[in-house]
Amino acid sequence: MSKHVFLTGPPGVGKTTLIQKVTQALKSSGISIDGFYTEEVREGGRRTGFDVVTLSGKRGPLSRVSSDSSTSRCEYRVGQYVVDLVSFEQLVLPMLRNVNHGSDAEKKICVIDEIGKMELFSQAFIQAVRQTLTGSGTVVLGTIPIPKGKPLDLVEEIRSRKDVKVFNVSKENRNSILQDILAAVESCRK
């Protein structure tokens, strides 16, 4: 029996778009939902980084393309991006802790988009995600990257959990998979 739903697929395939559609549908049927998604930041047609956007409307930088002049202090990097760990943790950790302390009869839904390389620099985030997955009152709707290069421990842990249903999102199925994801989330709430 699944307790959580995760989407996986190549970058740019539409995982976040699907998460947003599912979120809208659930919200409009009055279901309590919180969490965050990651959004591209573009300037003049090129991607300059990513922002974290919480479902309650807060926004902050997750990463930016680094100008090489700023390499003096300790940095977390993924490719050309420097990760703003402080900003990420300030936005995401209070929300995750809050989700874990709900004592509603209704299961809450927590959106975590995504559990990827940038986010996994945060040990506190890893802990909070594990707690949310093992807690009983929350259904996680999240995204994880497809395996590429060195496996990411938490990602592989989630992929192999018995209580997680993973949808592989592709260009072929991304427009027809929405109802299946919604149905899976609904059945996790029961």
Give a structural overview.
Helices cover 32% and strands 30% of the residues. It is of the alpha/beta class. A 9-stranded mixed beta sheet has the order 5-6-4-3-2-7-8-1-9, sandwiched between helices. Helix 2 (85-100) packs parallel to helix 3 (123-134). It has helices at 15-28, 85-100, 123-134, 153-159, 178-189, and strands spanning 4-9, 33-43, 46-54, 59-65, 76-78, 81-83, 108-112, 138-145, 164-168. It is built from 5 helices and 9 strands; from the N terminus they run E-H-E-E-E-E-E-H-E-H-E-H-E-H.
Mean pLDDT across all residues, rounded?
Answer: 91
Q: List the uncertain runs.
A: none
**Structural class based on helices, strands and sheet pairing:** alpha/beta
> Beta-sheet strand percentage?
25-35%
For the largest sheet, list the strands in their spatial order: 5-6-4-3-2-7-8-1-9
Count the strands?
9
Q: Major sheet: size, sense and barrel closure? A: 9 strands, mixed
Query: Helix content range of the residues, please?
Result: 25-40%
The SSE order reads EHEEEEEHEHEHEH
Shape: globular
Distance between the termini: 10 Å
Q: How large is the count of helical segments? A: 5
Radius of gyration: 16 Å
Descriptors for this entry?
nine-stranded mixed β-sheet; single chain; globular; alpha/beta; 190 residues
Question: What is the structure about, briefly put?
Answer:
With 190 residues, the protein is an alpha/beta fold. It has helices at 15-28, 85-100, 123-134, 153-159, 178-189, and strands at residues 4-9, 33-43, 46-54, 59-65, 76-78, 81-83, 108-112, 138-145, 164-168.
